[in-house]
């Protein structure tokens, strides 16, 4: 973690790009293994992971204890889901499938306390150190980053409206759903997906937003980091495990990897 004020400050001022990974196996051990490998952050995934808000506190504590930021991808764009996640102490929110400026504004409003937004105040939650942080309300608004996922053709078409959202910190490109919306779900490595992703990144940056993206492979992550994207989230815990298991079995038995992991681009 940096000395900037939270992930929000890091995205605004940080010169070092951040590398993270998705976590859908809700275990402290997974978070700590990611930290030991050198990731800067984890994205705890309530959209696709089989867990809920009640699992977050130990995972966030593990991330912070290991010097990482903890971002949470929420399942819904509403005040209750977003407020509960922030009360657990998440450094940032990743809000999936933002399709319009109105939806981006709703995400920001749910994430900031009045008068800027409508986040409901509770002063004795984990995020405020159970009341010990007298400046919780101010600090939270200054430090929590809000990232809007742009991951469909419709959102791409309304990008200018989304990037104009006051208080939004970053646009996060979701290439898998973007591929699906282009009719290319089975072939996400089709160049049309990367072209759309690049257009979103370039336009978001020129609108003054930080940029972030999911990369299925380390090579893709490298490409986006070299292109100046500030936050790249590389793959997901289950994929690392699946590939590692399959490669080890294949090597130990001296037989080709029988899964598709060895061949596929993700
Ligand atoms: C996508 O690529 O659609 C994702 O949501 C990955 O984060
Ligand atoms: Mg997606």
Structural class: alpha/beta
The first-level CATH class is given as Alpha Beta
Strand order of the largest sheet: 1-2-3-4-5-6-7-8
Order of helices and strands: HEHEHEHEHHEHHEHHEHEH
> What number of structural domains do the residues give?
1
Helix fraction bin: 40-55%
Largest beta sheet, briefly? 8 strands, parallel, barrel
Task: Give the radius of gyration.
Answer: 18 Å
How does the overall form come out from the CA principal axes? globular
Low-confidence stretches: none
Number of DSSP helical runs: 12
Structure, explained:
With 266 residues, the protein is an alpha/beta fold. It has a single domain (6-253), classed as TIM Barrel (Alpha-Beta Barrel). It has helices spanning 6-13, 28-37, 56-65, 79-87, 101-111, 136-143, 153-157, 159-163, 175-181, 191-206, 218-226, 237-253; strands at 18-23, 41-45, 69-73, 92-95, 145-150, 170-173, 210-215, 231-236. Strands 1-2-3-4-5-6-7-8 form an eight-stranded parallel beta barrel, surrounded by nine helices. Helix 2 links the parallel strand 1 (18-23) and strand 2. Helix 2 packs parallel to helix 3 (56-65) and helix 4 crosses helix 5. It is globular, with a radius of gyration of 18 Å. It starts with 5 loop residues before the first helix and ends in a 13-residue tail after the last helix.
């Amino acid at each position: 973690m940096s000395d900037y004020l939270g992930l929000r400050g890091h995205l605004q001022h940080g010169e070092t790009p951040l590398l993270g990974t998705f976590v859908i196996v809700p275990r402290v051990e997974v978070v700590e293994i990611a930290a030991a490998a050198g990731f800067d952050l984890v994205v705890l995934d309530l959209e696709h992971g089989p867990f809920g808000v009640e699992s977050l506190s130990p995972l966030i504590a593990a991330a912070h204890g290991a010097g990482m930021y903890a971002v949470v991808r929420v399942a819904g764009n509403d005040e209750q889901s977003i407020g509960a996640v922030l009360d657990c102490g998440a450094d940032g929110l990743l809000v999936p499938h933002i399709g319009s400026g109105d939806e981006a504004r709703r995400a920001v409003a749910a994430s900031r306390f009045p008068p800027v937004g409508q986040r409901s105040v509770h002063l004795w939650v984990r995020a405020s150190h159970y009341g010990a942080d007298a400046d919780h309300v101010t600090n939270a608004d200054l430090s929590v980053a809000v990232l809007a996922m742009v991951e469909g053709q419709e959102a791409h078409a309304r990008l200018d409206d989304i990037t104009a959202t006051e208080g939004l910190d970053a646009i996060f490109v979701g290439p898998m759903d973007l591929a699906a919306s282009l009719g290319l779900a089975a072939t996400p490595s089709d160049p049309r997906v990367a072209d759309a992703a690049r257009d979103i990144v370039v336009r978001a940056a020129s609108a003054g937003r930080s940029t972030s993206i999911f990369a299925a492979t380390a090579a893709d992550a490298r490409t986006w980091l070299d292109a100046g994207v500030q936050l790249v989230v590389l793959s997901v815990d289950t994929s690392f495990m699946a590939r590692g298991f399959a490669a080890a079995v294949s090597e130990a038995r001296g037989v080709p990897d029988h899964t598709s992991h060895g061949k596929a681009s993700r």
